[in-house]
Amino acid sequence: MLMIGQVYIAYLGSLPEGEFSPMSQHLSVFDDVLEGSSATDSLVRSYKRSFNGFAAKLTEKEREKLANKEGVVSIFENKILKLQTTRSWDFMGFSETARRIPALESDVIIGVFDTGIWPESQSFSDKDFGPPPRKWKGVCSGGESFTCNKKIIGARIYNSLNDTFDNSVRDIDGHGSHTASIAAGNNVENESFHGLAQGKARGGVPSARLAIYKVCVLIGCASADILAAFDDAIADGVDIISISLGFEAAVALEEDPIAIGAFHAMARSILTVNSGGNRGPEVYSINSVAPWMVSVAASTTDRKIIDRVVLGNGKELTGRSFNYFTMNGSMYPMIYGNDSSLKDACNEFLSKVCVKDCLNSSAVKGKILLCDSTHGDDGAHWAGASGTITWDNSGVASVFPLPTIALNDSDLQIVHSYYKSTNKAEAKILKSEAIKDSSAPVVASFSSRGPNSVIPEIMKEPPWLCPHVAGVAAYVKSFHPAWSASAIRSALMTTARPMKVSANLHGVLSFGSGHVDPVKAISPGLVYETTMDNYTQMLCDMGYNTAMVRLISGDNSSCPKDSKGSPKDLNYPSMTVYVKQLRPFKVEFPRTVTNVGRSNSTYKAQVIIRKHPRMKVEVNPPMLSFKLKKEKKSFVVIVTGQGMTMERPVESATLVWSDGTHTVRSPVIVYTDFLI
Predict the structure, then answer these.
(1) I need a labelling partner for 482 at 20 to 30 A (CA). Which of 56, 191, 324, 549 fits?
(2) Please, which pLDDT band fits residue 599 given cuts at 50, 70 and 90?
(3) Is residue 231 predicted with pLDDT exceeding 60?
């Protein structure tokens, strides 16, 4: 019996120019590699609108044969990716009265790759919207009981995982509706979460349109479906792509569906905004690494949702949760997970963390369950507990199905000590409240950090959250419709507000360029334009050969045979380099900026560096004079130092170009090996 293997994705690069039939090519390739099965049975998806490739069921032997065929850039498994407020825009300095051009904002289309959308939400009403922009070429194919409108102008679902339950663009998870409303939701008055965090809910660009690409079903988010969404969205005519998804760890560019899709989007001047990952605070944890898209960290706002628990001895502790339940001011008896377990079913560890199948519901019912886990609420809810006290060091408030408070290590130990001190332990969990957080913004502890494990010379992450930055990118696009993806990315990075190194674990590796500033981003003064030639040269410098680079770019690019550059030379708005420990170094970063501000302007360079630095930064020339708009000027940043150590593995500075009106900031980072 022939064994049909798992799904693999074959990436064949750009679509060739002229008359070309991708499907014919794909079927021809199949004829050469398939061993008994038919092409119809094996083919899962053909990518043919915006780039070239296909997804197919292959045996391991067929995969090996395909990988060795001429014209194949890469072949990789169809892996599953993971999914990575009313006050937030005001905190960013992006008030409702910020300058806008409504007619142009209404022409901006944001493609959201996520779990779908709930079209009946007020955030997506099409009241006062005109017809879709003329450039729109997409469709509304949302499945059963789903209708688009003049706000949600397109919808598609992708389901290579054959999830028979989740077969509509309608969002049954909530994640997609959340991200779409942040980026471009309408203004909705008097919104709150059961009375918490009340205010006006609004997206970054309320007049913009949404095109929804459901790439995540209940089973997960498949690589083949993400590439299919890119293939469609680029051809459909979106302007910005927001994708809050990622792998657990970074992968090679040619095996990363988001990096591949974003590359071809960039070639059409479409900027992709991607979440950097939720594996912080460890270094090297960022999974969004390609320089042709914006990778976004997560940071805090100045509104903190807290909760309190009062123990039977009168001790009050503060934790985090969105707890909208009231316990009527009553004390409830407490029980520890390990004291309420089915001893024959589970070991001590599983009992302490309150795994559902370990709990004796008759012992738990009507009590507050104490759990040494971030997920103890699931078991507590199932067992009929009246509430739960859990552990969580992230500092992030989550929503729970019953009265719950999450405490850090030290406070949870206080609860344990009290529990052990009495035979009648009791507690009450109070309703959550919103307080002012004067320490904000800081990068969230769960947010992934650099350095970049795939391209060490590229530093990522301007903090906020992915849909917020997508909304800001759309805002910039509404003022500058003709700008390239790299110009918008540069504007977001160079106008970002500086953040304190001392307030963020791993400093600049956590916050990258700084905290995005929507208002300043529309007038950056100078931009670092990155062309297709720049990117193909970077691929050459990374070791890709001429044949592969030509397939990816779709042009006649050639990799120099004699001279090998470095990815650090990419015309990118930050400057990063890895150096070996304890060795003197001298590194040069060539850069070119384009004047998008006033004619007849002069910019002077300033280097901001902390006291007692271990490196020196020079800029040559230190002054740039522009006579015309769109004029380009080049300079070199020279960084020297005596050596880096694992005890102090990162040194950073900031290069600032200023004409007295505009401030163009770029981080300069040198790092060595970490003690990890």
Answers:
(1) 549
(2) very high
(3) yes
